[in-house]
Amino acid sequence: METSVKQIRKRGIKDGISNAFTSLFSSFGVLVLLAIFIFVCTNGFHVLSWSFLTSDYNPSIATCAYPVARDEKVTYKDPLINGVYFSSGWGVGFEDATNAAKEECVIVTYLDNKSPLKNLVDQSTQDFYALTLGSSFDSGILFTTSGDLVLSFKKDGAMKMAESFDQGVKISSLTVSTSGGGIRGSLLSTIYMIFFTLLFALPLGILSALYLEEYSKDSKMNKIIRTLIDVSGGIPSIIYGLIGALVFIPVVNFFSGSKGGSLLSGALTLAIMLLPTIIASTSEAIKAMPHSYTSASLALGASKTQTVFKIVLPYSLPGILTGVLLSIGRIIGESAALIYSCGTAIKDQIILTGSSSTLAIHIWSLLGQETPDFEAASAVAIIILLADLILSIAVKLMGIRIERKMKGRKQNG
């Protein structure tokens, strides 16, 4: 009796120690994740803005040297935006700001739809220049009604800029620039990468899983193939990048005539890398389906192919969607494979057969500069973390829905 009591006490002590270590290490992991989240939010949250998401990364300068005049009888309504100085004669609002180089500047934050500044013409291209919000006027030559010259520079400040424009009635020269620093190009590249990767990976992955589960025999070769698929899921992504550089880049360049990595070669590389995930999720979804469903379909006279595509595939759709969501999360956060297969150049003009950078590579490029931009990198990291959080919640909700659906079918069956 005493021996059993001692054993119970010892077991209780061991369980207590095990639980303590488990709680300690679990808490440590949570604290690390929390510290990372706090760090990126502290450094990058103030950088996040609509302009940051929609503006180009590379700065641009355009000289509009064709006369633009305003109608002196027309007065534009002031939108009364806090911190914005408005020129009622030209329908444009200015605001003091700081550009990507941490220099003070004046930017355009409001432009009336009927403003004469909508009619600017670029001197170099002879085309209409689309003035965008966030642009700044570096210099300009304006004339008053009496022909006096009015000069405006960005160093004058937003208030002085608005007053100068109200005095002038005719612009003969205007230099417009954008400071850059935005992630529009990388954001679009990420969206394109997700679309084309899934376009290549989904059909191959789903059809492979259907073949393994429904058509192939339970043979030694089948087991070898399944083992190889599982093993390929653990291959480091940088090795897939090497495969992309050696195989997909030459193939894409041969057909497109381009040079170097591209979005298309990067998408093909990620498609191969994600195949194990899609095959595994589809296979598990097919295995979860009751065998009686396929038996009933075959008994009613349906062919094997009809049963697979009208019974098995629709039933497995929730599991397939779960694999798709997991794949999207990995595409957004992938960098190593894309550095070699897609390239690291941050581009504003996105071409499918040209090099570009996704959000993850954008962070890598920002931190690889001579002076790392930790604030912008943290802002991009926040976007990636939020996207992964949303996808994780979606996967969790999808799992709960599948589980409830399975329980309902079991109860009804």
Question: Which helices and strands occur, and which strands form pairs?
Answer:
Layout: H1 2-44, H2 50-54, E1 60-64, E2 68-69, E3 85-87, E4 92-98, E5 104-111, E6 136-143, E7 149-153, H3 158-167, E8 170-178, H4 184-215, H5 220-232, H6 237-256, H7 263-287, H8 291-299, H9 304-333, H10 336-341, H11 359-367, H12 374-412
Antiparallel strand pairs: 1-8, 2-8, 3-4, 4-5, 6-7, 6-8
Helix pairs in contact: 1-12, 4-7, 4-9, 6-7, 7-9, 8-9, 9-12, 11-12
Name a few traits of the molecule:
MetI-like fold; 3-stranded antiparallel β-sheet; 413 residues; 5-stranded antiparallel β-sheet; 58% helix; 2 domains; elongated; Pdz3 Domain; alpha+beta
Write up this protein.
- This protein has 413 residues and is an alpha+beta fold.
- The chain has 2 domains: 59-178, Roll (Pdz3 Domain), CATH 2.30.42; 184-412, MetI-like fold.
- It is built from 12 helices and 8 strands.
- It has helices spanning 2-44, 50-54, 158-167, 184-215, 220-232, 237-256, 263-287, 291-299, 304-333, 336-341, 359-367, 374-412, and strands at 60-64, 68-69, 85-87, 92-98, 104-111, 136-143, 149-153, 170-178.
- The strands form 2 sheets. Strands 1, 2, 6, 7 and 8 form a 5-stranded antiparallel β-sheet that branches.
- A hairpin with a 5-residue loop joins strand 4 (92-98) and strand 5 (104-111).
- Helix 4 packs parallel to helix 7.
- The longest helix is centred in the first third of the chain and has 43 residues, at 2-44.
- The protein is elongated.
- The model has no long low-confidence stretch (mean pLDDT 85).
